[in-house]
Amino acid sequence: MKTLKARLAKSLKNGYLLEGDDLFLFDKALAMIKKACNITMEDFNFTRFDDDNFSVEKFLDATEVMPLIDNKRLILLKNITKITPSDIKKIATYFNSPVASTVVVIYDFENKFSLLKNIVEFVDCKRFDQNLFKAVVVSELKKFGKQISEDGAQTLLEYSNGYLTKAMNEIEKLAFYDPSSQLITRIMVQDVAIKDKEFVVFELTEALGQKNVDKAISLASLLSKEQGIMALVSNHFRRMFFVSITDGSDSELASQLGIKEYAVKKLRQQSKNFSKMQLKKIFSLIDEVDYKIKSGQMLSENAFNFLVLKILFI
């Protein structure tokens, strides 16, 4: 994603595969590609496919349609999950000899199209590092005539868990929060921004490690009805256990876990609140609770509260 603008300036390709976890970056990349295509007749020259209207035959037919007035025609494949390996192969074959006037962009959230990675132009839409995240936030706020303090930007990064998609949802609220102030502060972010679930899990883990019973129970109550929260907490502790017992640099562990170096640093910090023996017991406890959920011995909500209480007293 960082190099896409430069690559588009050099040449416009016939296919772009977008993979990652930040929807804002997917949409930003699409906007850049669309601009490079110089499409003025969008109703005629921009076709979208999703699970509701996609078939490989319809897609291939669409690639053959010539653009009207414009020089390029843009096709977007977005949220395509109902696709077979045979369909992927047909699409790959198409790119061996694509229609020159057609540009295809694929949003691949679930890595369904990985076979195309070496065939079309790849765009990495994973979350940016801290510095790039903050630079984008500063740039967006500048459009409103606003600035943000360093600790305000850091707090927004943490609350958004590094997702620009989530940060963008907060920026307009922050921009109009206090018309009399040009500077957005940490306190303003804390007052306005909604915390990402993963950040609340981080807060819960911190409270558990420090044996802050009241805060841990309060956060557990807040999270208990959230869908998928058990998996988030389990995954967080599994990663922390891995970081605590594995040698290697932050970058090496980040690569192995598929997360940012910043996240590894946070996991290292939190792991200091637990002994290796405690983390090993928590790791075993998570497996035990997971088994009880899958075997029907525990409801997921009850299991989550049970897990939190058990960790408090390990």
Account of the 3D structure:
The protein is an alpha/beta fold and 314 residues long. It has a five-stranded parallel beta sheet with strand order 2-3-4-1-5, sandwiched between helices. It has a two-stranded parallel sheet with strand order 6-7. The chain has 16 helices and seven strands. 57% of the residues lie in helices and 10% in strands.
What best-fitting shape do the alpha-carbon axes yield?
globular
User: Biggest sheet, strands in spatial order?
Assistant: 2-3-4-1-5
Oligomer: single chain
Instruction: Find the count of extended strands (DSSP E, 2+ residues).
Output: 7
- Give start-end ranges of low-pLDDT stretches: none
Instruction: Determine the strand fraction and express it as a percent band.
Output: 5-15%
Reading the helices and strands in chain order gives HEHHEHEHEEHEHHEHHHHHHHH
Average pLDDT metric: 93
Q: Biggest sheet: strands, sense, closure?
A: 5 strands, parallel
**Helical segment tally?**
16
Q: In angstroms, what is the radius of gyration? A: 23 Å
N- to C-terminal separation?
Answer: 44 Å
Q: Percent of residues in helical segments?
A: 55-70%
Structural class determined from secondary elements: alpha/beta
